[in-house]
From TrEMBL:
The lineage of its organism: Eukaryota, Metazoa, Chordata, Craniata, Vertebrata. Residues 1-21 are annotated as: Disordered. SUPFAM superfamilies: RmlC-like cupins. It comes from Jacana jacana (Wattled jacana). InterPro entries: ARD (IPR004313), ARD_euk (IPR027496), RmlC-like_jellyroll (IPR014710), RmlC_Cupin_sf (IPR011051). It is a peripheral membrane protein. This is acireductone dioxygenase (Fe(2+)-requiring).
Length: 179
């Protein structure tokens, strides 16, 4: 099961857990109030998994690819890791399914505090369009993930501040309605 917590303010190695002391866990329900959804799937059988097939059909995820983030597998590895960890948003939902390895998605809560979400094999997460977030590997330095999109993929991250985009305004409206 996925685990999430509020992060400390340390600027040390981004790959470490960065838990507050004492730990301040975040529940799946709290993540849902931010528009973040989570599913657990069978990553060993992702090619034939009927649950993944149904999710793709129901959510219109018509496009997918697989990315391996490891220094021996990803061109421009160091540059990509830095880019993934810059706080940004997207104009579309970000859907990631961890097929192997592990890493962290960090998202901002309604009070602009960081929540770290630990992702491992079998975890699927959907981050809503307009949410500020970032990604980093953990200390294992390896993840293989499926990226899913509705329609053609759009890879563009908009680094903070990006508050004038309609996706951000719509997301802020969603947060206000949930509150």
């Amino acid at each position: 099961m996925v685990e999430a917590w509020y992060m400390d303010e340390s600027q040390e190695d981004q790959r470490t857990p960065h838990r507050l002391q004492p730990n301040c866990p975040v529940s799946l329900e709290q993540l849902r109030t931010l528009g973040v959804t989570y599913r657990k799937l069978d990553a060993d059988n992702y090619e034939t998994d009927p649950c993944l097939k149904e999710i793709r059909r129901a959510e219109n995820y018509s496009w997918m690819d697989i990315i391996t983030i490891h220094k021996d597998k990803l061109p421009n590895y160091e540059e990509k890791i830095k880019t993934f960890y810059e706080e940004h948003l997207h104009l579309d939902d970000e859907i990631r399914y961890i097929l192997d390895g592990s890493g962290y998605f960090d998202v901002r809560d309604k009070d602009d505090k960081w929540i770290r979400i630990s992702m491992e094999k079998g975890d699927m997460i959907t981050l809503p369009a307009g949410i500020y977030h970032r990604f980093t590997l953990d200390e294992n330095n390896y993840v293989k993930a499926m990226r899913l999109f509705v329609g053609e993929p759009v890879w563009t991250p908009y680094n903070r501040p990006a508050d004038d985009f309609p996706a951000r305004k719509q997301y802020m409206k969603f947060l206000a309605e949930v509150a």
